[in-house]
Design brief:
Blueprint (H helix, E strand, L loop, with lengths): L7 E5 L8 H13 L4 E4 L10 H8 L7 E7 L5 H14 L5 E5 L4 H7 L7 H20 L6 E4 L4 E3 L9 E2 L4 E2 L14 E5 L3 H10 L2 E4 L4 H17 L8 E9 L22 E4 L2 H13 L5 E6 L2 H18 L12 H5 L7 H9 L1
Parallel strand pairs: 1-2, 1-13, 2-3, 3-4, 4-9, 9-10, 10-11, 11-12, 11-13
Antiparallel strand pairs: 5-6, 7-8
Helix pairs in contact: 1-2, 1-9, 3-5, 5-6, 6-7, 8-9
Length: 356
């Protein structure tokens, strides 16, 4: 990877539950001030708190450019509803939506729904991949010009430009078409984690962005190469995949140097590599890893969002911008444009044009 490849940065704005949407709006606006690609808002059935997708739907009209990526659990949920909700977020944000597909693994979470028992990891991630697949098909099921809105004739849609997806997966079937018109981005950005081998397989097949965890640039580069090879094996363009290293960041003492070698830093419950140091230290690490071709960017989770996100934006990001390593303004209006990803054509419109 060339050192001139654009650096991508994203941040998590979750933490201890808050029941005031204004809290999350302030953090999203702070991240937007630093021109970050997107913010994520974690969610699961195992923790109290507001629904992440609903919160970011509130944040959307009060922000202008920042991408909005809630965690959406694909286990125990209906993919038709998931695709409709994410498409709605893309509409209300005017093309800035993504979604982080995750799974529910515990029996306690399964009992909240009472429909089935907890499943093995490989089955859960296969289902998550199928949910991502059918969501993309549903978003494609309306061609871009399917809406007519002709009041004189009373025609709202061109039914010839709506398509059945007729999807059959291991855990569900979906006929389609969608009930929400095709989103502004065509397909909102799909994000996967690559912690486990089944998750990496699903990510290689379906993700636009992958969050990976690594304790050295060499390890990160190896995971990135594996994901790119997997994407190519599934007939995808590996250059259309963005791989971001996930770091949990503690900038509590700006004057304290980072622990000697990220490799020796403590792990946080297997869900992220821990970085402790100052904003300058973090900027140096990001620059070093990116120049080494280890990743396309970083997804940063502040251990204390209100404190650390401010230090990330006004310290780390400002320094990277000063060094001309990170942009100072957004290149476009949609999350796909921030990430340098093209807007995909509807697969059904493409098929129709080939038949003509």
């Amino acid at each position: 990877m060339s050192a001139r490849t654009p650096l991508h940065l994203a941040a998590e704005i979750g933490g201890p539950p808050h029941y005031d949407a204004g809290h999350y709006l302030r953090l999203a606006r702070l991240a937007e001030g630093g021109a970050l690609d997107y913010v994520t808002l974690g969610d699961s059935f195992a923790r109290p708190g507001l629904d992440a997708l609903a919160v970011l739907a509130r944040v959307a009209p009060a922000t202008d450019r920042i991408g909005l990526v809630p965690t959406v659990t694909t286990t125990h949920t209906e993919p038709f509803h998931v695709s409709s909700a994410v498409a709605s977020l893309d509409w209300v944000s005017k093309g800035r939506a993504g979604w982080h597909a995750d799974v529910s693994t515990t029996e306690a979470e399964a009992r909240l729904f009472g429909r089935r028992s907890a499943a093995p990891s490989d089955a859960l991630w296969q289902e998550a991949g199928e949910a991502a697949d059918v969501s993309a098909r549903l978003w494609d099921s309306w061609e871009d010009d399917a809406e007519i809105r002709d009041t004189a004739t009373g025609r709202f849609i061109d039914r010839d430009k709506l398509h059945y997806v007729d999807f059959e997966g291991s855990a569900f079937t979906v006929k389609g078409p969608a009930i929400v018109p095709r989103p502004p981005q065509g397909r909102p950005v799909t994000v996967f984690d690559s912690t486990t081998a089944p998750a990496r397989e699903a990510a290689a097949r379906h993700a636009d962005v992958v969050h990976t965890r690594a304790t050295s640039p060499e390890q990160a580069a190896a995971v990135r190469d594996e994901l790119r090879r997997g994407a190519a094996a599934h007939g995808r363009d590996p250059d259309a995949l963005r791989v971001l290293v996930a770091l949990t960041v503690d900038l509590g003492d700006a004057e304290t140097a980072q622990e000697p070698g990220l490799e020796s830093g403590p792990r946080l419950a297997g869900r992220g590599t821990y970085f402790r140091g100052g904003p300058v230290d973090l900027a140096d690490l990001i620059a070093q890893w990116h120049r080494a071709g280890a990743a396309d960017g970083f997804h940063l989770t502040p251990i204390t969002p209100e404190r650390d996100l401010e230090r990330i934006v006004n310290g780390t990001v400002a320094l990277l911008q000063h060094r001309s390593l990170f942009r100072t303004f957004y290149p476009g209006g949609t999350l796909r444009e921030h990430l340098g990803l093209v807007r995909p054509a509807s697969r059904y419109a493409t098929a129709s044009s080939k038949e003509v």
